[in-house]
Amino acid sequence: MNDRDSKIVVSKASKTVKELLRTHDMKETVHLVIIDPETGRAKYKYEAEGDPLPPILPPPPSPGDDEPFNKEWVLKQIRLAVGDAVIILRSESQQMEKRIEQKFDAKIDQVANELRSEMKENNEELRSEMKENNEELRSEMKENNKEIRSEMNANKEELQSEIKKVRSENKKENEKLRSEMKEGFEKSEKQNKETNKKLDMLLELIKKDKK
Fold first, then answer.
1. Which pLDDT tens digit goes with each residue over 158-187?
2. Do the domain assignments include residue 206?
3. What is the pTM of this model?
4. How far apart are the C-alpha atoms of 172 and 178, rounded to whole Å?
């Protein structure tokens, strides 16, 4: 890597952030500068994460030549738009549940792998000690087995605690998602009512103009 490649390109990082902000609700999670007091070497850490922004629904097309522009046509377009929004919300809900499930499975696999690794290391230490002195290790094995059982019980309790924690987080995220979906439905219903009210007023004005 030459000097040119090793330099920080500020515009490149700024461009990446701008592109992400167009598609995701990004929030800063890590912004840290560490300077070694002995060498003066600086280390800069920056992280951000966010969920995808809700899609923007395009406006409905204008009526065709064989379809009049009236209240029925507007209501039809509103129903179609609301139906599309419901489909999108359901799709996002399914994707969210899938991500939560994957996160839950990954967490369980991680804890299980750590437990297996610790047990494997303990077994290797026991075999090495047994080769050195069988007589001495018979006594030590009893104590080690007790410690292993105690550690396994502790790890089992820790695993159960982690599982409960992940399930609790999963439940909270699901409740939050349901609340957001309910709020979206209520907002759409409110907008529909307001739109209907305005359309009724327009129709009344049209009737008066015809008279």
1. 888 888 888 888 788 888 888 888 888 888
2. no
3. 0.28
4. 10
